[in-house]
């Protein structure tokens, strides 16, 4: 079960990363993610969770654009995946604060745990390969 969850998480993250690399122009134009209209007109009503999700999206997109590409695939992947994973944590925390469904809240807790572990792994990898 855990292996399947980790594999599914990695696939989702890779899809997000690939979406970032093909959709960076959209992000630079102010969209939080390709295909996601984060303007206030697209939100149904106004709630604390909507504002929190928008803030998490904006933070993630800014941080994903911050590292410059080095040409080293491994280093570039890790550098851009860390903020992507942090964005997943931030969004899961919005769910934990505002969500009501116990199953989805459990999913959010699992996401926080898994993404923190993966961020720690990537940071250890970065430290190990910093001078290479």
UniProtKB/TrEMBL annotation:
Keywords: Signal. Residues 1-27 form the signal peptide. Gene3D superfamilies: 1.20.1260.10. The keyword Transcription regulation does not apply. It comes from the Bacteria. The lineage of its organism: Bacteria, Pseudomonadati, Pseudomonadota, Betaproteobacteria, Burkholderiales. Residues 40-125 form the DUF305 domain. InterPro entries: DUF305_CopM-like, Ferritin-like. The keyword Signal applies. This is DUF305 domain-containing protein.
């Amino acid at each position: 079960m855990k292996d399947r969850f980790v594999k599914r998480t990695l696939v989702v993250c890779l899809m997000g990363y690939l979406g970032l690399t093909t959709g960076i122009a959209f992000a630079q134009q102010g969209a939080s993610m390709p295909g996601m209209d984060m303007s206030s007109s697209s939100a149904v009503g106004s709630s604390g969770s909507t504002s929190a999700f928008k803030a998490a999206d904006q933070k993630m997109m800014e941080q994903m654009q911050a590292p410059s590409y080095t040409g080293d695939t491994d280093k570039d992947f890790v550098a851009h995946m860390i903020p992507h994973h942090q964005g997943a944590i931030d969004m899961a925390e919005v769910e934990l604060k505002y969500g009501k469904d116990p199953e989805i809240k459990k999913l959010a807790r699992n996401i926080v745990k898994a993404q923190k572990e993966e961020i720690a792994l990537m940071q250890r990898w970065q430290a190990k390969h910093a001078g290479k």
